[in-house]
Amino acid sequence: MRKHYASSTDVARLAGVSQSTVSRTFRGDTRVSPEARSKVMEAAQELDYRPNLLPRIMLTQQSRLVALVIGGMHNPFYARVLERFTIRLQEMKCQVMLAHVDSDDALDSVVPRLSGYRVDAVVSALSVLTEAAANQLIELRVPVISFNTHMRKKGLYTISCDNQQAGREAARHLISQGGRRLAYLGGPEHNPANIDRRRGFAEEARARGFEPVLSNDEFSFAGGARQAARIFASATPPDAVFCGNDLIAIGAVDALWRSSEITPPQPLRMVGFDDIPQTAWAPYELSSILQDEEAMIDRALSILDDLYADVDMPDRVELLVPGKMITRRSSLNGLQLPGRN
Amino acid sequence: MRKHYASSTDVARLAGVSQSTVSRTFRGDTRVSPEARSKVMEAAQELDYRPNLLPRIMLTQQSRLVALVIGGMHNPFYARVLERFTIRLQEMKCQVMLAHVDSDDALDSVVPRLSGYRVDAVVSALSVLTEAAANQLIELRVPVISFNTHMRKKGLYTISCDNQQAGREAARHLISQGGRRLAYLGGPEHNPANIDRRRGFAEEARARGFEPVLSNDEFSFAGGARQAARIFASATPPDAVFCGNDLIAIGAVDALWRSSEITPPQPLRMVGFDDIPQTAWAPYELSSILQDEEAMIDRALSILDDLYADVDMPDRVELLVPGKMITRRSSLNGLQLPGRN
DNA sequence: TTGTATGCGTTATCAT
DNA sequence: ATGATAACGCATACAA
What we know:
2 copies of one chain form a homodimer. Chain A has 13 helices and 12 strands. Chain A has helices at 8-15, 19-26, 34-47, 53-60, 76-91, 104-116, 131-138, 163-176, 192-207, 221-231, 246-258, 293-309, 329-334, and strands at 65-70, 95-100, 121-124, 144-147, 156-161, 182-185, 213-215, 240-243, 269-274, 287-290, 317-321, 324-326. In chain A, the strands form 2 sheets. The first copy, chain A, has a 6-stranded parallel sheet with strand order 2-1-3-4-5-11, with helices on both faces. In chain A, helix 1 packs across helix 2 (19-26), helix 5 (76-91) runs parallel beside helix 12 and helix 10 (221-231) packs across helix 11 (246-258).
């Protein structure tokens, strides 16, 4: 399907030098005379030569290829993580290989290819990463850096927001704003991030004498809408809600907004998670806990740096980055709903 | 940084067969005896062997690597395109190499690497692709498939929504809903998609006796907010607005929502573009023109298929996929704004 | 400074 | 069915 690229040998022939000289020229080796260099560059230009990186990978055992495993990009938070990660990796001269994974068995079809292309590391930004899936990645014998999957495992470098602490802060804040009947609208039951956020929230609430309602569903708009419909149908609906992520929060707002049957308490306080751009949109003004993804990415890249520098490293790392509460109207004055304030 | 992977030669030695037999076994070649096969598999298991794809690429001149060049993932439309593309490419046994490009000169640093890894094709989902940038990609001597960049160029396969037609339909629809003072809130002046959408809208409006106000800014939330602030400050503000994309529309809504000084006509009709999930959110209920990204991706992949199958192809292709108007409250009953309806 | 020779881990073409 | 052998395009140790 493709006309061959010129090789360094072709360039060497045309320039009248050896292939080694061409190689040296293109890697910026100093031991090349100016004359040779210019002859080489000229020939390369003429032949439209593009150095092939693949042999180098085989020889140096280093591809500068990093796999990014994602799933569920409908969440703008992960879209942002993906974009920032790609930019930062490019800055450190790495290329991103993208792998989308829906379910755990989807991993089976992707993993062989990742290893086949000899990626140097795998970064998982999966919202759901089970232990089995983590094992599959670790068995690549390649470092695995995982976002928001607090898992103790050899070969796994974990970077998370301090979800439990964030949950506590959400509880404190909602209570301080007058919330008395607390609820948590969460993600999948066994998701590690969900577990930690819920636990922190529930523990802090109980410590202050409140028993929160706890609910689970998808980490999505639809999941939020469903949970709101259930929770607010109660005779004693909550007046302060902490949502496992912003999409859940916005989905919940949608359910309240649309249903004339549901009449939530006024004011209704709400806090979300991730601080996606949409939280700041005028109709919402949602308070949210910002995950400092830039700091998280910093950590991930410094691990990667260490790996490249062959620094001795612990065989597993668990880093926690504190979340930051961003308060907006939804938790201060209460959520605005049409025809109700 | 990495312990070497076992090679097929290692496996061959342990299994007591030749390297060729190992190779054949792993490529599913039929000409391998069951005994040999099982010996090989056993040894491979033992050594945790992972076939290296790189030599194959060098020999076959085919990497099954497709570069996806993106920029501006804050637009959920492109996030969705990226996700779907990745999934579909994986289904056809290709791997995505991601490249983020902000500006045209960012392309300079990325292009050499894409060619270095010997990608088979480049898909550009850049919202902004200038002619110079397009040339750089084409000079890779690799097929370039471009989304929403209607450009006539050899080596460039263009797949766009029929933006001009969509612009016409937006004008017709807004007028039929009673709009009289039309406005277009657009993206960057020279962006091809912006040009086509605006032209279609303006031509159709004029054909029906209306002279629209035309405005340009970024294809973003902030761009929409700025344009709205300008446009609605007029003594005769528009009563029907077509926005170059949904983010612009939502940004415009934000400006209206927040400013007490702006009092737009009632009803105010609005139509956006892309039909991102947010348009359907309760506070907005924005009508929008759906880009059928699945159909667009279908086309892109079939081009790729043809390339892999070595089918004779025209040296440039321009495909248009019709947009589909999704009508919601914002263009039927008019936009809902707080305290004004 | 430059060139020669060898090797990286496969695939593909021959023989056998 | 199996094995030997020659590429693929580059990096590198070594010789000159």
